[in-house]
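Dear H.,

Thanks for agreeing to be a second pair of eyes. The structure we're designing against is below in token form, covering all 149 positions.
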């Protein structure tokens, strides 16, 4: 008896079965890496008028995102930090300076907005929470064991 999942896989078109390992590896093995690369891809599509063929034929080699417009699925783990730095450079070029990047109001219109600081949004939130967290109060004359952390 064939399990139900295997039976449904047998009915899938051959093209989909060929692409399935690549899709699964992108979504399961490298979930965060694919988000930023997909954001770059969406940005490139917006830039080229939503025409994938124009993104493939893009001639703007001096664009900081040019190298990641057509990413290779096997290189996400190696290039992940470089993609984030490229997004940061692009945002600095677009906005002009760090203060303008911080106050960027293109939240709905730019797919790169959440990566504008060059880190993942969760990392940025964790770091800012730690920096802005209340600090332990140290009063001279009290012993170390009486201090709260």
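And this is the sequence the design step returned. I haven't edited it by hand at all.
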């Amino acid at each position: 008896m064939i399990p139900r999942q295997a039976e449904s896989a047998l009915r899938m078109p051959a093209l989909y079965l060929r692409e399935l390992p690549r899709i699964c590896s992108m979504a399961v093995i490298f979930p965060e890496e694919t988000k930023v690369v997909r954001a770059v891809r969406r940005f490139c599509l917006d830039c080229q008028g939503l025409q994938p063929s124009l993104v493939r034929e893009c001639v703007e080699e001096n664009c900081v995102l040019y190298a990641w417009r057509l990413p290779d699925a096997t290189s996400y783990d190696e290039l992940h930090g470089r993609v984030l730095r490229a997004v940061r450079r692009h945002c600095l070029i677009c906005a002009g300076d760090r203060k303008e990047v911080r106050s960027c109001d293109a939240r709905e219109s730019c797919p790169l907005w959440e990566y504008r600081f060059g880190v993942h949004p969760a990392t940025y939130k964790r770091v800012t929470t730690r920096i802005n967290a209340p600090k332990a109060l140290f009063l001279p004359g009290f012993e170390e064991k009486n201090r709260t952390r």
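Two observations from my side: Confidence is low (pLDDT under 50) at residues 1-30. The helical segments are 4-10, 14-29, 31-47, 52-56, 76-95, 98-102, 121-132.

Warmly,
E.
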